[in-house]
Amino acid sequence: MITTSYKLALNELLRGGVVAVPTETVYGLAADIRNPHAIASIFKTKDRPEFDPLIVHIADTKDVVAVAREFPPLARKLADAFWPGPLTIVLPRLPQMNPMITSGYDTVAVRIPNQTLTRTLIRDLGGPIAAPSANRFGHTSPTTAQHVESEFSGRVLVLDGGPCGVGIESTVVRVHPKKISILRPGAVTAEDLAKFAAVEPARQNSESPGHLIHHYMPDIPLVVFQNGVTTAAYEFVRMKLGKNVLHPAWMELPSEPVTAARLLYANMRAAAASADVNCLFLDYPIRERRSHLWAGISDRIEKAATLTV
Q: What is this structure's pTM?
C-alpha cells in the first residue's frame, strides 16, 4: 500500500514492521536494526539469502558510534565530503550488532541517505535502520513508490517520497590507511574518491551488497549488444536464447550519464512490461564505459544481463 502519511510509516517501523522508504538512490525496505524480528522480516519479504549483508542507514555522522567500533580518519574525511549522499562506507562493527545484518562479517556498511524524509524517520525512530533495495532479491531495483507496490503486490507499506534522483545504488567502499577500495561502483566515482587517497579499482567483495554476478535482473531476459546489433550477434543470440528472442523490445538509455543512471531501472521495468514482449535488447558499450558515473551504470547493466554479446 502506498501512503504519503509520515506518521503511518513511522508507527509501522516502531511496531517492528518493514516499510519501503525513499532515498536518493533507490527505494529501500527499512526496518529497525534493534529489532531482530524486523530484520528477519526484511530477508523473508525480499527472499534474500542471509549471506548478503544489509546497509545500515543513519541520520547524522555522530550516529556512526551506534554501529561501528572504529571510524578511521580517512573514513571521516569521506563522510564529511559525501554524506548525506550515495556513498556507503564499510567499517568495523560493534560486537553486539545483530549478525544477520552483517551476514556474520566483522564489518558493517553504513551511509547517510540524502533524503530528508527518511533521515527524519530515523531520528524519530530513535535509531538506525537497515534498508536494502525494496525489491525481490536479484530483481530490478525500484526508483518510485509504484515500482515497490508492483514488486510486492501491495503487501508492503510504501512511503511515497517521489522518484529517486540518483537512480542506482550507492557506491560502497572500504578504507585503508592510505587507500580506498571500491567494492561497488556508483554515483560517487573513482575520480571523486581519488581526491582523498589512492583508489583501488572496483572488485567483487562479499562484505558489500550487490556482489553477485547476476543481480538487478528484469523479469524477462536482457541482451546487451556491446558492439552494435550485427547479423552475427543477432544470430548468436537466437542460438543461445531460441524462442525467447522472437518478440524483443528495445530498451532506451539516455546518452548523458546522470540522466541515464536516474532512468536506468525505470526504463528497464517499462520495457519489460511492454505487451507481447519476451526479451529486452540494449545497445550499450560496456567495455568502453568504465569511468566516472558510467562505471556504476555499466556494473548494473552487466549484472542485469542474461546475455552479453
A: 0.93
